[in-house]
C-alpha cells in the first residue's frame, strides 16, 4: 500500500478497522 492510499483511508470513518483487517492478513 502507498502513503496516498493510507491517507485516503484515514479520511474515511472506520478506517482503522479496514487497516487492521489488511494488516492482519
Q: Would you mind describing this structure in some detail?
A:
The chain is flat. It starts with a helix and ends with a helix. The protein has helices spanning 3-11, 15-24. The protein has one domain (1-25). The chain is an all-alpha fold.
Compose a concise summary of this entry:
With 25 residues, the chain is mainly α. The protein contains 2 helices and no strands.
Q: How many DSSP-defined strands?
A: 0
Class computed from helices, strands and strand pairing = mainly alpha
- Rough outline: flat
Count of discrete domains: 1
- For the residues shown, what is the average pLDDT? 77
Topology (elements, then pairings):
Layout: H1 3-11, H2 15-24
Helix pairs in contact: 1-2
Please tag this protein with its features.
25 residues; mainly alpha; 2 helices; 76% helix
